[in-house]
Design a protein that fits this description.
Blueprint: H1 5-22, H2 32-43, H3 46-62, H4 66-71, H5 74-84, H6 91-109, H7 111-118, H8 123-136, H9 138-169
Helix pairs in contact: 1-3, 2-3, 2-5, 2-9, 5-6, 6-9, 7-8
Length: 174
């Protein structure tokens, strides 16, 4: 990481926060997933710093509640998935990955509830608590998955091309 990367990380984190706040009035419709996919494809490991900054900004803006614990890992899961499929070039592939990620978001976010349920003393209680949380959010996960799919299908290529162009134009060092 170079000194030159710090403003880049700050700006791209601010973009994540801005689009999140800007679309907050639409439940589970977001550009964060698509942007993290594109950031990971182009910026590789720098995305880690962008995610950390974004998550800290979210906590400062909205408070450090239980929802925030989810953010400590869910966006990193998406970055890891992106790294696994980094050879994919088709917008439809990324739309499917983004859509599936949106569908699974509630399941990923149910993990802390498993541990809360464990505090009642049994493994079954942990699973029941996490399962109840996940089932309760399925309508939101459906919206999240469908909107992620269409957002990525339409915007993946233009945003990827723009960020890749800027990355090369300003000779941002790996």
């Amino acid at each position: 990481m170079t000194l030159r990367n710090i403003p880049l990380i700050g700006m791209l984190s601010a973009v994540l926060l801005t689009v999140q706040v800007g679309l907050a009035f639409l439940p589970n419709v977001e550009l964060i997933s698509l942007l993290i996919i594109i950031y990971t494809l182009i910026l590789n490991k720098k995305t880690i710093y962008i995610i950390i900054t974004f998550v800290l900004l979210q906590g400062l803006l909205y408070g450090f509640g239980l929802w925030w614990v989810n953010y400590l890992y869910v966006w990193f899961v998406l970055a890891i998935i992106t790294r696994i499929f980094k050879k994919e070039t088709s917008p439809i592939s990324w739309a499917l990955i983004s859509g599936f990620y949106g569908l699974s978001f509630g399941a990923l976010c149910s993990i802390p509830y498993f541990f809360i349920g464990l505090s009642n003393g049994t493994l079954e209680s942990g699973f029941n608590t996490a399962f109840a949380y996940w089932i309760n959010g399925i309508p939101f996960d459906l919206v999240h998955g469908i909107s992620n799919f269409f957002i990525a299908l339409v915007l993946f290529k233009p945003i990827y091309k723009l960020l890749d162009y800027l990355y090369k134009k300003f000779n941002i060092v790996q």
